[in-house]
């Protein structure tokens, strides 16, 4: 996921108007620690500086016991449940896609807990609610598959609890997240606009039933928990640590360099100039030698 810090250029004047103006880029250059909400378990490995701490999944936590209507519905589901959610906010779902999803869910051998405001045609197989305790549901042993748009928080909650995912991305980084889930074999992805009800049923059932996906994501879950424990506590540790000791010992001197020096563009330009001058000199000398050879040959003839 990529973030343009220029979008928050007025952050100082907005939150600390009494302070001297400083651009968000200048603040970033002076920062002693960076908390990046990503990691090498869910995302791909990439290089970073010592003061960049990769801590993905700040929203995850141990699952709390379910209660009320949801608890009864989940525990009464003999074959388990599929949790379906497309984020914390309300989204508009076209009627044709609603109809497609409902038709697909009814054909599953799983029951479905769906975060969606759907009051009509409630069935014993589908529990649709405006809000669901997503993290707690994903941590329940009867949850077999997570059907999601594959946003940042949802994918980390699924990773933490070891639940395979069927990704139905809508926009933005969800497309990248979905393909990465498939590459790592934590689940599959599809385009909700193109897939038929039959295909959707098959995909959900495949992710739920194929032990490959559950095995892979549960192994990743164990690695993630061993590395990060509770990510929010890990982030809090680094904030406390830097406030107590400072973070200058982790900062690279390269962070203060102009970009052209950091990329060695000045060195490359200097060496390129020497190379070009040397080639030109060689070319001139070669031409002089050839011309002299030609003149000598003409005189001899």
UniProtKB/TrEMBL annotation:
InterPro entries: UDP-glycosyltransferase, UDP_glucos_trans, UDP_glycos_trans_CS. It is found in: Membrane. It catalyses: glucuronate acceptor + UDP-alpha-D-glucuronate = acceptor beta-D-glucuronoside + UDP + H(+). Its main location: membrane. The chain crosses the membrane at residues 262-286. SUPFAM superfamilies: UDP-Glycosyltransferase/glycogen phosphorylase. GO terms for molecular function: glucuronosyltransferase activity. It is an enzyme of class 2 (transferase). Pfam families: UDPGT. It is a single-pass membrane protein. Belongs to the UDP-glycosyltransferase family. This is UDP-glucuronosyltransferase. It comes from Biomphalaria glabrata (Bloodfluke planorb).
């Amino acid at each position: 996921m990529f973030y343009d810090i220029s979008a928050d250029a007025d952050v100082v004047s907005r939150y600390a108007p009494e302070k001297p103006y400083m651009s968000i880029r200048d603040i970033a250059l002076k920062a002693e620690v960076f908390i990046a909400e990503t990691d090498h378990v869910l995302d791909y490995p990439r290089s970073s500086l010592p003061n960049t701490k990769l801590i993905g999944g700040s929203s995850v936590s141990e699952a709390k016991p379910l209660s009320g209507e949801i608890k009864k519905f989940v525990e009464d589901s003999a074959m388990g449940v599929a949790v379906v959610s497309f984020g914390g906010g309300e989204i508009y779902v076209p009627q044709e896609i609603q109809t497609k999803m409902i038709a697909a869910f009814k054909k599953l051998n799983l029951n479905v807990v769906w975060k969606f405001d759907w009051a009509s045609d409630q069935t014993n197989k589908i529990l649709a609610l405006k809000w669901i305790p997503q993290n707690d549901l994903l941590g329940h042993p009867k949850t077999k598959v997570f059907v999601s748009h594959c946003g940042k928080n949802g994918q980390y909650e699924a990773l933490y609890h070891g639940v395979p995912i069927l990704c139905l991305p809508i926009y933005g980084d969800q497309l990248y997240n979905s393909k990465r889930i498939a590459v790592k074999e934590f689940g599959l992805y599809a385009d909700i606009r193109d897939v038929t009800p039959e295909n959707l049923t098959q995909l959900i059932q495949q992710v739920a039933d194929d032990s490959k996906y559950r095995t892979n994501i549960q192994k990743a879950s164990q690695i993630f928990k061993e590395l990060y424990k509770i990510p929010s506590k890990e982030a809090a540790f680094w904030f406390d640590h830097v406030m107590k000791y400072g973070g200058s010992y982790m900062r690279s001197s390269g962070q203060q360099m102009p970009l052209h020096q950091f990329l060695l563009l000045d060195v490359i330009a200097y060496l390129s100039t020497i190379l070009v001058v040397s080639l030109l000199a060689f070319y001139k000398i070669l031409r002089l030698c050839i011309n002299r050879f030609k003149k000598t040959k003409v005189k001899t003839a």
